[in-house]
Specification:
Blueprint (H helix, E strand, L loop, with lengths): L26 H10 L12 H10 L5 H4 L3 H8 L17 E2 L6 E2 L2 H10 L2 H11 L1 H20 L18 E2 L12 E2 H13 L23 H15 L7 H16 L3 H18 L4 H14 L3 H19 L4 H16 L3 H19 L4 H14 L8 H21 L4 H30 L1
Antiparallel strand pairs: 1-2, 3-4
Helix pairs in contact: 1-12, 2-8, 4-7, 7-9, 8-9, 9-10, 10-11, 11-12, 12-13, 13-14, 14-15, 15-16, 16-17, 16-18, 17-18
Bound molecules: zinc ion (4 copies).
Length: 444
């Protein structure tokens, strides 16, 4: 993959990936990255080290033009699909664009207005020079940083940057550091993280500074996490699609957006990730599809989520076998998607197959097995669906088997056990209610 990191010419002002043969690297690394949907799992070997080092040096400082946030930048920064939003009025699905820089417009009126009074005249060449994608990434990174800095402005008043020791526009992104600690300048963190990411070896640790606090080790979260993830995307998005830095940054950004509940923004990131994966990392596509399906579910696009989940199950069962953990996990995702899409009959069929497989693969008392059994019982007696006596009996049997297994084997940890108990109780209550309804029918 990535044999020669050929750049689209003059696409970005940034981490230019110098020509020259990059070391071939192990794509399985990027696979596991995608599989876990977690940046910490990048295990591949680096691309050309020198290239990354140069990217790191070139990376963290946005151009002056890129630092100034104006209305256009805000429009772009907030748009889930900035390539098709009118830079003048913010209307989505803009069909026209500037012939020079490719910024999108509703039409000639908006474009003319933006040229005369919207500042486009001063920017058009800047945008063209660094490329629209980079320009948008800069605007998004700046907006995310401003938001994070504003969030912590009071707390940060007396704090100092954990990297350079100075004050100023600080943010934080962890819970582990004490009050008043854990602050950093985004530029300082980015410079450090890019340097570490450019090092050889270390693999999974290489990207850690981009997603976990150097001081306390906690994963980043909240607006600080998003600011850091946007910054990483600003730094790496101009690299070749197969460059693992870029692969990581895209995956990390999708995760950060999803964790923030910004699913509309997450969607195009996941779609791009899938497009890259399909071409360059076909082994990762099931996990990317699963992430994309999650995003669609959050947006209420249940049919699309279902389509993706089916594809994931088919691919993994073929590749890993039906009893592999990945396949079981995928089938669980499919069962949930079927539930969301109100495909109850098929959901039952999938769960009827899945539960015995989990018992074989994971054991009767495994928390996942138990919750799957509970889900199956729940699906069988779900309210609003007429069920025969034999189905109710089946659900009852399943529940008793789960309860016995849970009591005998004990779930793995208290939290799981508690959650399971609760879900079992709820299912039982539902079942009992169903039974009461039946009785009512019989005796009145
Ligand atoms: Zn417009
Ligand atoms: Zn232009
Ligand atoms: Zn600093
Ligand atoms: Zn911390």
């Amino acid at each position: 993959m990535c044999a020669e990191t050929k750049k689209k010419p003059s696409k970005t002002a940034k981490p230019s990936s110098p020509a020259g043969p990059a070391k071939t690297h192990d794509t399985t690394g990027a696979k596991s990255d995608a599989r876990q949907s977690s940046p910490r799992c990048v295990t591949a070997d680096v691309t050309a080290q020198a290239q990354a080092a140069q990217a790191a040096r070139a990376a963290p400082r946005p151009s002056v033009a890129a630092r100034r946030v104006d209305v256009t930048d805000l429009i772009l920064a907030r748009a889930p699909r900035p390539r098709t939003i009118c830079a003048a009025c913010g209307a989505p699905e803009a069909k026209a664009h500037c012939g020079n820089c490719r910024l999108a417009y509703c039409g000639a009126r908006c474009q003319r207005r933006h040229w005369k009074s919207g500042g486009h005249r001063d920017r058009c060449d800047d945008v063209r020079r660094i490329g629209l994608d980079q320009y948008v990434a800069n605007a998004q990174a700046n907006a995310a940083r401003e938001r994070a800095v504003a969030t912590y402005v009071a707390e940060a008043a007396t704090a100092a940057c954990g990297f350079c020791g100075k004050g100023g526009q600080l943010l934080r992104a962890c819970d582990g550091c004490e009050a008043g600690a854990g602050f950093f300048h985004l530029e300082c963190l980015a410079a450090y993280a890019a340097t570490v990411a450019a090092r050889d070896g270390a693999r999974s640790e290489r990207f850690q500074p981009w997603f976990a606090c150097r001081a306390c080790g906690d994963d980043f979260r909240g607006v600080g996490r998003l600011a850091v993830a946007r910054e990483a995307w600003r730094v790496y998005n101009g690299l070749h699609p197969t460059d693992l830095h870029r692969v990581f940054a895209m995956n990390n950004l999708g995760d950060a957006l999803g964790a923030m509940g910004l699913h509309r923004e997450c969607l195009p990131v996941r779609e791009d990730e899938l497009a890259v994966g399909r071409v360059h990392f076909p082994n990762h596509t099931p996990q990317i599809e699963a992430n994309l399906a999650r995003c669609h579910t959050q947006l209420g696009n249940y049919a699309e989520a279902l389509r993706l989940r089916r594809s994931v199950v088919a691919a993994l069962q073929k590749r890993e076998g039906p009893l592999s953990r990945m396949s079981l996990e995928a089938a669980r995702g499919l069962a949930n998607a079927l539930g969301d899409a109100a495909e109850t009959e098929e959901q039952r069929a999938v769960l009827r197959q899945l539960w015995p497989r989990m018992r074989r693969a994971l054991g009767d008392a495994h928390a996942t097995t138990l919750s799957c059994g509970a889900k199956l019982a729940h699906a069988l007696v779900e309210k609003g669906h007429a069920c025969s006596d034999s189905v109710i009996a089946e659900a009852e049997d399943i529940l008793w088997e789960c309860l016995e297994a849970a009591r005998d084997g004990g779930a793995d940890d208290d939290v799981t056990a508690d959650a399971l108990e609760k879900s079992l109780e709820e299912t039982r209550r539902l079942y009992l209610a169903e039974e009461a309804d039946d009785d009512g029918d019989k005796f009145t």
